[in-house]
Write a structure and sequence with these properties.
Structural class: alpha/beta
Helix content: 40-55%
Number of domains: 2
CATH superfamily of the largest domain: P-loop containing nucleotide triphosphate hydrolases
Number of strands: 5
Strand order of the largest sheet: 2-3-4-1-5
Largest sheet: 5 strands, parallel
CATH class of the largest domain: Alpha Beta
Number of helices: 16
């Protein structure tokens, strides 16, 4: 079983205590920002649920019973993991209704004994899939634990949410996050990315291991430098960079860049409102200088506009035009000339 991060242990102890009292929830939504360990928590909760050790005999899975050995070997016949399927017409973005039907069939074949159904990200369920799951949750089979892992619980059907307990997992304190990162490979490189990741240690660590620390320095150099004065030139250079082999091989793409860009705009709006930077604290002086170029209303309007455009980030019709529009709007807000 994968080790559990210290900030997740209270959730685990809460679950085991509920098991011990015979009141374990049948359906849990594990919500919270990306990179806080929701998937790891789901894995550990599922392992403890399937373990044959009685709750009063110990908190951790025993590691010796048949269920634990099956999980350690890479699979358990009574554990289902639903993720977006890569198939014709879907491209791995949705959890299709066929997956839920497979689970329903499996549950009917194994009518007794503890079983686990993990769905992640749960917001990837389309309307038909969510409605099929709802029918199962309305009359849940005995001894089945449903774990819905999601960054955005509000994206789930209200009727699905109403049949689940929501456990909201927030990033740990900075002190706890830094202590944990010190114990991880490449953790020292992740420290500089922790604020950008909203304090989520796993996100920062994942970015560091992909080599994104270098991309972060480039990003800061552009957004805080002279690039906004020439948005069309900036867009051309950014397009070439995003299409380069080195960038693509690291997994950095338009989606990742836009995520950082929205965080930069959010910090500009915060500074304009008199608050402190959230994601770019070491660039606060530069943010303050830029924020003076426009009103709070203008910065909020720009962030809202770009956030709407971000919905198309996975399939822009023309990458250059997409970047030009986004960056020109930024330059205009600063009062720069094209």
């Amino acid at each position: 079983m994968a080790a559990l991060m210290p900030w997740l242990e209270p959730f685990y102890r809460r679950f085991v205590a509920a098991m011990r009292g015979g009141q374990a929830p049948q359906a849990l939504i594990l919500g919270g920002p990306a990179g806080v360990g929701k998937q790891r928590l789901a894995e550990v909760l599922g392992a403890r649920w399937l373990c044959e050790r009685k709750p009063e005999s110990g908190d951790a899975p025993c590691g010796q019973c048949r269920a634990c050995r099956l999980l350690l070997a890479g699979g358990h016949p009574r554990s289902w993991r639903l993720v977006p399927a890569v198939e014709e017409g879907n491209e791995g973005r949705q959890i299709t209704i066929e997956r839920i039907r497979e689970v329903q069939e499996g549950l009917s074949l194994a009518e007794t004994g503890r079983r686990v159904v993990t769905i992640m990200p749960a917001e990837a369920m389309n309307r038909f899939t969510a409605n099929a799951l709802l029918k199962v949750l309305e009359e849940p089979p005995a001894e089945v634990l449903f774990l819905l892992v999601t960054d955005v619980p509000q994206a789930l059907l209200p009727t699905v949410r109403s049949r689940c307990q929501l456990w909201w997992i927030v990033p740990p304190s900075r002190e706890v996050a830094l202590l944990w990162l010190q114990t991880q490979k490449d953790g020292d490189q992740a420290v500089s990315l922790l604020d950008l990741a909203g304090g989520a240690p796993l996100a920062a660590l994942r970015w560091a291991r992909a080599g994104w620390g270098e991309w972060f320095e480039r990003f800061l150099g552009e957004v805080g430098g002279a690039a906004p004065q020439a948005p069309l030139v900036w867009a051309a250079g950014l397009e070439s960079w995003l299409k380069s082999k080195e960038t693509r091989d690291s997994g950095f793409d338009l989606d990742a860049w836009m995520d950082w860009w929205l965080r930069w705009l959010h910090d500009l709006a915060r500074i304009a409102a008199g608050a402190k930077a959230c994601y770019f604290p070491r660039s606060e002086a530069r943010l303050r200088a830029l924020a003076r170029h426009a009103s709070l209303r203008a910065w909020i309007a720009l962030e809202t506009r770009v956030r709407a455009r971000a919905q198309w980030v996975r399939h822009p019709l023309n990458l250059r035009l997409y970047l030009e529009e986004v960056l020109t709007a930024y330059a205009e807000t600063l009062g720069a000339k094209r």
